[in-house]
Design a protein that fits this description.
Distance between the termini: 21 Å
Helix content: over 70%
Number of helices: 16
Mean pLDDT: 83
Low-confidence stretches: none
Shape: globular
Length: 401
Amino acid sequence: MLRNLAYACVSAASAGLLFVLLIIAGRTLGDVEFGKFSFALALGTIFETLMDFGFHQVIIRAIARDKSRARELLRHAMGLKAIWAAGALAALVATATFLRPERDVRAACYLLGGSLVLRSYMLTIRGALQGLERFAWDSVVVVGDRAILLIFGVVALASGAGLHGLAIAFVAARAAALGLSMWLTHAQFGGFGLRFDPAIWRELQATALPIGFFLVVINVYAYVDSVMLGIMRTDVETGLYTAAYRAYEGLSYPASAVAAVLTPRLSNLFRTDRRGHRRIAILGLAGAPVLAVVISAFAYLLATPLMVGIWGNDFAPAATPFRILSVGLCFVFAIWVLHALAISVDRERVLLKTAVVGLVANVALNLYVIPRMGASGAAVATVAGELVSMIALVVSLRSEL
């Protein structure tokens, strides 16, 4: 587990490459154009969950419990995903067209949506690798994707291509990264392709549905603030909040690394060693918040120099929402571990119910605070929603702990 955790941390840390690209984009595009890009990326990320719809988590758990089915399940999941990806992309195009009249914003939404279809296929490949606990190869896929994206994005920005060029760079980079992932998949599984079997598709779909709905809700929760700011306030405030949220999101990646390692291990132990399953779950849940407190204190105290140092002087006002968001890290770290626990014990419906509760609380509060407080109000709503979600998860999973 320590070796797997080390590789998972490398994968999580590689998010710094994407963060660097966002920093360069913010400094190059300026606050208005960066706000438009942030809106397009947030909207696209919400619809990305529909493209995967829980197959990533289902593949991890199923393969962790029966490794002999890895190749079969991966191929069928890739085939089934084509249907979901096409529907999600169509829904994204329609939504972007309805929400934003500006042609440049619409074009960015369409292009980033296409890049996220490609990323969604890589996510399924990663699910198979994580289910087999081949975290070294998973790290190659993740780091390769983000390194290619950084290179392509920087070239586009340096050439003066602006918002449109950056969106095209996302599509080209993700196509190249998917090619790399498919090559690795061929090496690991002895072939790559799409398969159709009605019985297996029904099995995958039925198992994925609760997780898929949960992930849709979680993704909407994570990015609805940026979308609501883009509609209810200005592109400048959307950019400021995105700058704060991206930094905050980066600080939560250690928790995602822990959850990535815990999910396949807990899924296997739930069938083979219930006592060991409970022991590891409790250790994870006890250790994650301790780490969160240290990171949260660091972020709160250094908010202004972090925002200015990362994004530039124009983003100094982002320090206030960043401080508010940093308080929520303590809740987020616990939530990641609780998600891994719930998936391992087949309690997907609990995840969905608690996520809906958190989303309702977040959106309802956003409707009140965004018109009055702008980006800071969106941060308050996010933290409040995370607290509500964590409490609901602990109550629902208390028997497993």
